[in-house]
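Subject: design request, 361 residues
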């Protein structure tokens, strides 16, 4: 990324040579990212991240839809980058249905099939959940949407670099992506828009991105996105295998060593880097503070809802009792996670839970 902060500082939208060099870097990134998801380069549009991509997908499709198609389907466990735009459209008069999930956080494709109708302008289902790690049956859902001629958007922010992505096999009309889940720079992402999909611009005021997304492109971040996705392609499979072993050991160690530790999400169809437990009789905030003092950085849910005192909407959608949901803990594994770190976490978490429960008596 470094040369694009200084030596190659030109605006890629200009025609002079410094701009052409920057434009070449953007074009190369676009081609590589498109190839990684099975798309064509002209179907990839750069954004400021997954949140903008999700907002654009939801609001852009709704704005471009005829008045006869004002029905949207999504799930109750989506990231707020999808849920909140859907709720905004609901307030504006759109008919938005929130599909339930089972106790594992997984959507039954048949539920989608029953609710799609001629008025449906969009179906949006995430590929993998950011809190409990549930991997959704995207290909089945995409097939249903394609057969019923309903545009299908999937939030693949958590899946990129961890799960295989092919927009054709998934039946996706639109897909949200973000760089920082791959150790790329924060503040850059992309929206895949299948050729022929009617979508309005979210940002206006310039002709960048074929006039569909105004604003000067963040060239260093786009170059970083390119590098991150390239590295994920080279090392992702081996890293996912390594993380799966560590994830399973972490789950086993917590379940065997801590009474009333309840695993949230599916046992098998789960992201390799995700562990999520609820601890009866405890508050998640107390757990997080104690873990932080031990040098273990965790969360109670999505990083985007940090500071909220409400139980996770994902857990509530999975019909987890409110009191149990307040004791939520999400542990995420990554490139720096070692077997020693997992064992340390198991032991420290056991001590912390034991101490907090003794204080609560």
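Subject: RE: design request

Done. Sequence follows.
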């Amino acid at each position: 990324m470094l040369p694009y902060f200084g030596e190659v500082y030109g605006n890629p939208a200009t025609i002079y040579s410094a701009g052409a060099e920057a434009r070449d870097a953007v074009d190369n990134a676009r081609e590589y990212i498109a190839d990684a998801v099975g798309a064509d380069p002209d179907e990839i549009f750069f954004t400021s991240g997954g949140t903008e991509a999700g907002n654009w997908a939801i609001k852009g499709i709704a704005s471009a839809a005829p008045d006869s198609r004002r029905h949207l389907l999504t799930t109750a466990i989506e990231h707020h980058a999808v849920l909140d735009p859907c709720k905004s459209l609901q307030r504006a008069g759109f008919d938005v249905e929130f599909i339930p999930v089972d106790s594992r956080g997984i959507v039954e494709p048949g539920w989608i099939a029953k609710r799609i109708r001629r008025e449906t302008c969009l179906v949006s289902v995430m590929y993998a959940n950011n809190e409990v790690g549930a991997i959704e049956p995207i290909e089945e859902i995409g097939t249903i949407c394609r057969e019923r001629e309903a545009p299908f958007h999937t939030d693949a922010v958590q899946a990129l670099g961890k799960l295989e992505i092919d927009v054709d096999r998934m039946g996706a009309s639109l897909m949200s992506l973000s760089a920082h889940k791959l150790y790329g720079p924060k503040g850059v992402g992309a929206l895949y828009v299948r050729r022929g999909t009617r979508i309005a611009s979210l940002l206006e005021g310039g002709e960048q991105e074929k006039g569909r997304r105004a604003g000067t492109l963040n060239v260093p971040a786009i170059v970083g996105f390119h590098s991150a996705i390239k590295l994920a392609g080279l090392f992702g499979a081996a890293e996912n295998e390594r993380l799966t072993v560590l994830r399973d050991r972490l789950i086993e160690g917590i379940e065997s060593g801590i009474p009333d530790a309840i695993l949230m999400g599916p046992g098998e169809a789960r992201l390799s880097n995700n562990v999520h437990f609820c601890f009866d009789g405890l508050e998640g905030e107390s757990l997080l503070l104690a873990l932080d003092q031990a040098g273990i950085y965790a969360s109670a849910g999505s990083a985007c809802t940090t500071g909220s005192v409400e139980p996770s909407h994902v857990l509530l959608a999975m019909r987890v009792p409110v009191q149990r949901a307040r004791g939520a803990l999400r542990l995420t594994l990554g490139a720096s996670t070692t077997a020693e770190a997992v064992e340390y976490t198991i032991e420290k978490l056991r001590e912390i839970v034991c101490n907090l429960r003794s204080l609560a008596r």
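The chain has a mean pLDDT of 95.
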